[in-house]
Amino acid sequence: MELVPILLAWLAVTFRPLEHFVIWGSKVRERWRKSFDTEQIGKVVGHTVPGLLTVEHPVSKDIETGDLLLVPGDEQQPNIGVALGHVGIGEGLRLQVLQLSISEEVKSRLPKAPISEGRCAVVDGDEIDDQIGSIQDYRYENRNRLVGIVSPGTTTQELRFEVVRSGTELEEGRLIKVEVGGEMGLYQVTDGVTKEETVQQENKRGYAEAGARKIGYWDDQEEYFSPITWLPEPNTPVFLVEEQDREVDYEAVGYFPRTSYPVSVDTDDLVTHNSAILGILGIGKSYLSMELVERMIKDDINVICIDMTDQYKKELGNYIEDGYAYWSHLYLNSAGVKGKEIYRMNKEEGGSINEFRTRMDKVIDDLIDDSKKRVLTIDPSFFQVWEQTGNLRPNEEASMGTLTQAQITQIIAESALQACQERGMTKSARCCIVFEEAHSLIPEFNAAASKTDERATNGTSRAILQGRKFGLGGLVVTQRTASVTKTILNQCNTIFSMRVFDDTGMEFLSNYIGDDYAEKLSNLDDRHMVVSGKASSCRGPVQVRVNDREDFLSVARADEEDG
To answer: In this predicted structure, what is the pLDDT of residue 22?
Structure first.
């Protein structure tokens, strides 16, 4: 048995198999290196920290953003770089190249000859994948979506980046991603500007710089954006988020354009902190409002729709209890018509206004008490309610007048507040009043038809402002921002901004969503909006593609159709 190890030792000393194996491996590696297809294109003429090289190459060499280059790395070891964009002219074209972070093992497989004396070479990505294996660097994997690098001027709130790839799908509203603190953060493009700089002596170059607002880090499991609390490093690459197909999601009130990233709303915050939908006529405000109302109903929130268009009654018919709707309409109407003949010495007691108010209290009480009654639609222009406007004198009839839409709106709001107060304080939403065509129901003081309407609007405003602690709130819907009372609008913590043109509306909205988003409102595409506020799942303003009505109904009422 002792002869075996002695024999093995003698063979190892005599034939040196380990040494021969190392030599053989070296020859194979060198042979592979020689077969690696490279084409020298130029030399490195500058370094920018961190990780950027400037490569000068002949005009005849056509290199595009995303092309891979073999470049000198640390201590002249070979490395892989990604071509960005051209930044000027010296003795040849000057190209910015982003160095990748690759392992020592991968570096050992790269050919050294082409990068001697600081020179660079173009390499084929497929060949690298075949012969080296995939390089584990997100910048390599996403090189075809590379659109820019982080520019000076970036802050914790706004990302500025130099656009390095032309002819892409980059546009306002698109999402881009960039590494911040070791994670990929999402930003939304808000603007772009052309710039010019001198690069060498009198040579100048023009380029585009884009701006983007931070959205957050996306959590796939929780489907939630967590906040980005810092800013990316200079020269960090910026990638365009690839266009995505999406399935309709009931929780989503809309999606970031061309993506499946949803934006949702919290109905409790939507109501208790008040909300508004603003935009020009025919842009889809009412459909969005009705979608929000359906969400409130499913979350056991009572809704009173003050609507002169009759749309809500038709679209929300599934949630309206027919018997209650018929009774409430007849009950309220019969209170008002006889009031013209009711005169009182005290004019506050004349007319039918007090009876109408009492009956409104009863109607709204029934709405909140009965779990089957979730929606009440009221058209204030339908009711003829009388009030005594002058004192009664001997042998004379007192002057009478009918209530305006603003006055009836005040009665509705005050009755809703009383009903909610009687049920005590709560942190959850209990009842929402929808002000459709709000400029007619709660006009601004300078848009009110009379002092009566101005006083009525003040009364409605008080009810809405006092209602929060009792679960009462409002949803304001209008195309005329300037004509709606700012007492309520200023209390709307969540704003859905669709296309607007008027200066007053833009100025008002800029306080909520910032100048960058406000300036784009006049050019928003159909079915797009800017969402901002407490109820939104995003912390800051975001541009969103609104749900199509049919898509939303297909998921919101799926159970009803199956039943």
So the answer is: 47
Separation between Cα atoms, residue 297 and residue 249, nearest integer Å: 17
The number of helices, as runs of H, and strands, as runs of E, in the chain is 18, 25
Task: Find all residues with CB under 8 Å of 198, minimum gap 6, and list them.
Answer: 204
The pTM of the whole model exceeds 0.70: yes
**Does residue 485 contact residue 457 with C-beta atoms inside 8 Å?**
yes
pLDDT in tens, 143-155: 889 999 999 999 9
Name the DSSP class of 50: T
| Burial class of 209 by CB neighbour count within 10 A (0 to 12, 13 to 18, 19+) | middle
CA atoms of 260 and 262, how far apart (whole Å): 6
Single-letter amino acid, residue 185: G
CA distances to 176, 345, 381, 389, 450 from 402, rounded to whole Å, are 57, 19, 11, 10, 13
> What are the residue ranges in the chain where pLDDT is below 50?
21-25, 27-35, 563
Q: What is the bridge-based pairing of β-strands 386-388 and 472-478?
A: unpaired
Task: State how far the Cα of 192 lies from the Cα of 508, in Å rounded to an integer.
Answer: 24
